[in-house]
Amino acid sequence: MRATTIVQLTDTHLLAGGAKAYGAADTDAGLARAVGHIVDLDARLAGVDAVVVSGDLTDAGEPEAYGRFRELTAAIRAPIFVIPGNHDLRAPLRAAFGLAGDAAAPVDFAADVGALTLVGLDTSVPGAAHGAVSAAQVAWLDETLGGQPDRPALLFLHHPPFTTGLDFMDAIGLRDAEALEAAVRRHPRVRLVACGHVHRAMATVWAGRPAVIAPAPTHSARIDLRADAVASFDLDPGAVMVHRWRGDALVSHVSSTEPAPGPFPFYAE
């Protein structure tokens, strides 16, 4: 059986005119490196089946920045699915990707890709940094997951529904996630909950499922677990996550997007 390979790209934070995010992070260059890496993975892994962008495509929701995102990702052959983050604006995002629906409505999606169903929930709250999921969205998720119960599903969110230990990020995490958690528990077909927002690779168990946060391609939240930690970031090497379903198992990889020497053989012939 052919594997199904999903690349998760998150928190690209593009700005109009190629400006650096927070005056320091060259997000245009970071996304360009990520795209080059995804194109390389497409060759190495016998095909990337889809790319899911789990929010914060832009830093300020500018139409020009969404256009730039489309330009920089044009080399990716696989379909690209997007959900907004707290830095995004729904209307220009919808316009840039030609997405149907009311301009102000949540940008949710569901798609069958290979052996998987990919589901994205828009956790953004207009005008706020924290996340939330409405009762209507939970009902839609229940209905969406209710079909094809034997088909594995991956659920993508921007805001993680669990505590990360980074207080300055948890303060703007997903609020009131109990109904969402109950919905996920009702549907065993959900094999992974994959998030963005924190700009740092993390893994835990939530709602009885593996849950991960993907790293970002340019800058990462500093790992400082003190209660008085200042909200800050480092220019760590960029990365994406690769979620690969094969047989009856899902394996998730963190894959660096930075150029590096290699490959070198482990054993001399």
Automatic annotation (TrEMBL):
Domain of life of the organism encoding this protein: Bacteria
Entry's Gene Ontology molecular function annotations: cyclic-nucleotide phosphodiesterase activity; metal ion binding
Keywords: Hydrolase, Iron, Metal-binding
Ranges annotated as spanning the membrane: none
Stored Pfam families: Metallophos
Positions of the Calcineurin-like phosphoesterase domain: 5-200
CDD domains with a match to the protein in the record: MPP_GpdQ
InterPro entries named among the record's database cross-references: Calcineurin-like_PHP, CNP_phosphodiesterase-III, GpdQ/CpdA-like, Metallo-depent_PP-like
Homology family: Belongs to the cyclic nucleotide phosphodiesterase class-III family.
Protein name: 3',5'-cyclic AMP phosphodiesterase CpdA
Taxonomic source organism: Rubrimonas cliftonensis
